[in-house]
Amino acid sequence: MPKLNLKLTTFLCFIAVAVFLLLYYQNFYPLEALEKTIYATGLRVGTSKPMNTPRVVLIGIDDKSLSDFGSWPWPRSLIADMVKLVKESGARVIGLNLPLVEEQEGEGLKEFRSFHHKFYTYPFTQRETQVRDWVEENLLKSEERLDFDGKLARSVREAGNVILPLLGSYSGRNRNVLDLEKALLSRNSLKEEGLSKSLRESVSVKRLFFPFPLLARVSKGFGYRFPLLKRNMHENSCAMFAAYKNYLIPSFLLRIELAYLGKKPLQVSAGDDEIRAGPMRIPLFKGKMLVRFPRVGEGPPAYSFSDVLKKGGKLYALRGKIVLIGFTHRQSKVLITPFSSRISEIELFALALENILNKSYLVRPVHAPYVEALGLLVIGILVSLFFPRVGGGARLAWTIGLCAFILFSGFALLSISGIWIKTSYTASCVAVIFAVTSAGRLYGEGRDSRISAETNKLIGLSFQNHGLFDVAFDHYRKLPLDREAKELIYDLGLEYESRGMFKKALSAYEYINKGGGFRDLDERIARLQELEKSPTIPERPQAEGPVPTEYPAARELSRVGRYQILETLGRGSMGLVYKALDPKINRLVAIKTIRFSDEFDEEVIQEIKERFFREAEVAGKLSHTSIVTIYDMGEDEDLTYMAMEYLEGEDLEKFVNKKNLLPVEKVLHVVASIAEALDFAHSSGVIHRDIKPANVMLLKTGGVKVTDFGIAKAISGSRTKTGVILGTPNYMSPEQIMGHKIDHRSDIFSLGVLFFQLLCGELPFKGDNLSALLYQITQVKHPPLWHYNSKIPKICEQIIDKALAKDPKQRFQNAGELARVLRVLISKIEEARRKYPAKKQRARSQ
User: Fold this and answer.
1) Sign of CA dihedral 782, 788, 791, 792
2) Whether 250 and 303 share a structural domain
3) By residue range, what is the domain housing residue 483?
4) Cis ω for the linkage preceding 73 (within 30 of 0)
5) pLDDT digits (tens, 9 = 90+) for 206-247
6) Confidence tier at 412 by pLDDT (50, 70, 90)
7) Distance of alpha carbon 577 from its chain centroid, rounded?
8) For strand 269-270 and strand 191-192, is the pairing parallel, antiparallel, or unpaired?
9) Which of 230, 348, 670, 841 has the least C-beta neighbours within 10 A?
């Protein structure tokens, strides 16, 4: 994936991680639904063992009971009879989860009590006193039979083990606590220990509604019953306490549990994450207990209110048990369990009580949200950095593996250890990052294919212009075979034909024909096939690489023009370089020779010679201390020569070897001198085009001379016989490779390459073959300099980065600017060197 696309994709992945963190804290419904599915599945596996002997029994006011006794509210005498029956059956605790706030006084009872009051205050005579007492006694008995509230209160008092619910409201104004309420709350309050202010506020109620006073006074205790906020609630937990003014009231089910264990509320401490009562510990999460649900049909035993009451007599199944009396009819089943079954509130209480009694807890650690968020963040960042750097198959395998591992980890923790950790957000985040990186890869590949096609086209044209027809053909074959590609390959075929390479021309035409007919292909293919069969027409080969030109030995070549050859100095890219003597003025010179007939086709030799002399003439007018002086040029038979200033020194080829690098300060001096020479040449309208180590001389005196001005331009764009690219690809600028019009900034790029190589002994752009090298130069950013030499100053790397920018507009805009920066840097280094000994001397004196 290209670097720019890689950065963009990684950035988008980081955004996805941030979005999922936000969704996590917002409890995003679709992911919460997925979490509930994992939760339910874990519970199914975790509760596959049969339940212990149940210690909670339900007596439900079901649809049958409502049918038998009528719709609610019932006469409280029925409830009183049930409480009496349950107590006689040996129930240890009775939880009466029914609304008993208001007194139930019918009109008949009111009239009866009014008559009774009038009768009692009537002035009877003494003779009538005996009759009055008899009537009074019977009135009292009748009133007692009609007073169902009183009957219920007597049953509750006689049972001595009935827990009643407290109702409340989260709205309305606070009111003063009555003396009776204060006494009741004092006996039914928990101790606070480690309860956070935020949690206390979240469970605070504004008003409480007690059972009617007569009943409230005789009950064993109270517990707060949280209101159901809506129907069809997905509920998997029970709140364990509520706050009212200065009191912390146990929930209805917790108060029942304490009564069963024989503990008073004041003996119990409540905090954010647990409830403690001696050795008993109930784990909580934000004040709630998570309920472990059994499989459907395996809950506590339940009986119909109607059946129990009609049967009468003791029900021995209730002995020693907690008996919960409440609604279980169809309309009351408003809670949806993780198994998608519906239960009533009293059934949820029963399951929670069984969990506590069996110590079958589900635990959600208090720090779970932080661990989950941190896990999401860490895994998300790691995956965001990793996925864009791997292939599609590996990325898919990692995604499936990671998601499966994350989800299974949460599932295993829940089913085996009873610990609930949310994993759906992290798994979903990984899946979304996979989608983002895959989309980014698809977009990048499409974009890369377009860039690659353009690159192959331009590189192919460049190779074709330099006579490398076979290499150009290889690049053209990488293009989609559309009309433009056919046009390019067709022109290449004509080039092959013009040079007598008929087999290769035929291959080019046949390749085009695979994509359908084009121009006169059929005629050309037929003609070339006939030629191929003819033994009299030979195929003229095209060399695949540079073929060395044989020149006469130095001893055989004693004179060039008027110059007397003394010795051979070396071989250039197109000929030999000699040390010679100018006999006219007895001056040593360097003679560079070129035999154009060995390098170029006959039809272009004259054109190249004329261009060569013209450019050499312009370069010869350059007069600068760091530019080699050209004295003369001419021809000797078929040998073209150039007489130049003779230099005592070595070219920079010696100093780009890792084992023989120049000191950094010396490199800065050398590059600054080259930049100044280039700036002078550029101001005179001359572009070098071939800056490389072999074309820069380091003199014995320490000076620098740049050679070969004008030669590169004279021969650029001309096709050689051997197919050699006349110019050094490693140092070419991107625009030079792509065949675009170049200016002085191309030399700045080449100088940046040389600067890089002088500092670390490595080229910034490499490739296994020429095509790969040219792609690196045109499309890929160079590696950081510190990768090869960590001791190089950071400023040098910044200068090189600017010089090697792909876009000429982002480079130094002239060589003088680069030279000035380097001179300032050199002066800073020299200034620091002057100051350092002074500091050292002061330190010694102290």
Assistant:
1) negative
2) yes
3) 467-533
4) yes
5) 888 889 888 999 999 999 998 765 555 566 788 999 999 889
6) confident
7) 60
8) parallel
9) 230
